[in-house]
Structures are given as C-alpha cells and as structure tokens.
C-alpha cells in the first residue's frame, strides 16, 4: 500500500553567492509512526522506498524505536521487488517510530551538502509475518534541522522544522492484507 511521499535533504538553504551565515545547511529526514492496533498478534512489515535518485546505504541509515531501544540499521533490497526496504516487527498493541535519514558520518555528505532524494513509501505485510492482516495507525512526517555554516562556533544557531505529510489514502487508519 502506498503510504506517503518523502524527501531527504542535505542542502544549503540559500545558494551561493549568499554569505555563509544566510546559507545554513538543512538536514531533512523521513519519520513514520506506526501503531499495531491488533490486540491478538504481532505483525512483521516491509517498508519500501522508491526514490530519485535511488536511496542507498552510501548516504542514509535507519532507526527503529519500538519501545525498549533504538535499533540502527540500513535499508536492504527487498527479495521480491528489489526496492530499498526495511523489515519492522511490531508487537500487538505496540507503536514504533521509523526514521530514514541522511548519514552525516559518511565522508563529504555534510561538507558537500548536495544530497537531495525524493520519492514515495510503500508498506506491506512481510511473508515473515505470523499474521496475514493488520490494522495500523500511521503518521508520516518530515523533520529537518538547520545547521550553522560553522559548527565550531561557540554559540551555534540550530533550528528545527517538522511537518506532517498527507497519507496516500487520506486517512491514518489503514488495513493491510497479505
């Protein structure tokens, strides 16, 4: 099922020749809250990304927080579609937060500030799931942080933005079937 669009960025907010104090960089990530409303069974989900250019492990990483800890990972090609994907397990009644974000630890990503990926997100019940169906509550968002040009400044200026994305079906409540 189509969930939403997404956009990952590491870009200056104003192009040259604007001075660096105006041209702070934005680092923007995709966030998806997912609640498993089923009170009977756990569900295993496949979250898949189609982007232009293609989302890669060269410039991104994932985080999935489903309660007790943050699980860091990377997207991997889905065995059927080949699309960059992540397998998520949600216990019955549980809510998790999935994050896909630019990996600023990779050489050059922050300095070059030239990452721009846009696309769409799909969600399926994984063949690994013990459940053939799921009722889910989803909430996609884009969150961004504005970084100062000079990160060594003793008083750096950081700002953040967050906005909800419309869902493809116009509602937060979705029903998936395998």
Q: β content, as a range?
A: over 45%
User: Rg to the nearest angstrom?
Assistant: 18 Å
Structural class: mainly beta
Overall 3D shape: elongated
Low-confidence stretches: none
Mean pLDDT, to the nearest integer, reads 91
How far do the termini sit from each other? 11 Å
- Quaternary assembly: single chain
Count of helical segments? 1
The count of strands amounts to 12
SSE layout:
Blueprint: E1 2-12, E2 25-36, E3 43-52, E4 60-65, E5 70-73, E6 76-77, E7 84-90, E8 95-102, H1 109-112, E9 115-125, E10 133-147, E11 159-164, E12 173-177
Antiparallel strand pairs: 1-2, 1-9, 2-8, 2-10, 3-7, 3-9, 4-5, 4-8, 6-7, 10-11, 10-12
Written description of the protein model:
- The chain is mainly β.
- The chain has one domain (2-177).
- It has one helix at 109-112, and strands spanning 2-12, 25-36, 43-52, 60-65, 70-73, 76-77, 84-90, 95-102, 115-125, 133-147, 159-164, 173-177.
- Strand 4 (60-65) and strand 5 (70-73) form a beta hairpin.
- The protein starts with a strand and ends with a strand.
Key features?
single chain, 178 residues, mainly beta, 12-stranded antiparallel β-sheet, 1 helix, elongated
What's the gist of this structure?
The chain is mainly β and 178 residues long. It contains one helix and twelve strands. The chain is elongated and about 55 Å long.
């Amino acid at each position: 099922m189509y969930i939403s669009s997404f956009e990952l960025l590491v870009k200056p907010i104003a192009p040259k020749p604007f001075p660096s104090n105006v041209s702070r960089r934005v680092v923007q990530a995709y966030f998806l809250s997912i609640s498993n409303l089923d009170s009977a069974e756990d569900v295993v989900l496949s979250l898949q990304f189609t982007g232009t250019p293609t989302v890669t492990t060269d410039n991104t990483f994932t985080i999935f927080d489903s309660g007790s800890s943050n699980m860091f990972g990377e997207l991997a090609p889905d065995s059927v579609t080949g699309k960059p994907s992540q397998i998520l397990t949600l216990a019955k009644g549980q809510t998790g937060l999935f994050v896909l974000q630019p990996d600023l630890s990779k050489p050059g990503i922050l300095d070059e500030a030239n990452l721009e990926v846009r696309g769409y997100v799909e969600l399926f019940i994984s063949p690994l799931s013990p459940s053939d169906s799921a009722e889910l509550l989803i909430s996609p968002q884009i969150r961004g942080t504005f970084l100062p040009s000079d990160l060594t400044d003793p008083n750096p200026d950081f700002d953040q933005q967050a906005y909800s994305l419309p869902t493809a079906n116009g509602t937060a409540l979705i029903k998936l079937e395998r």
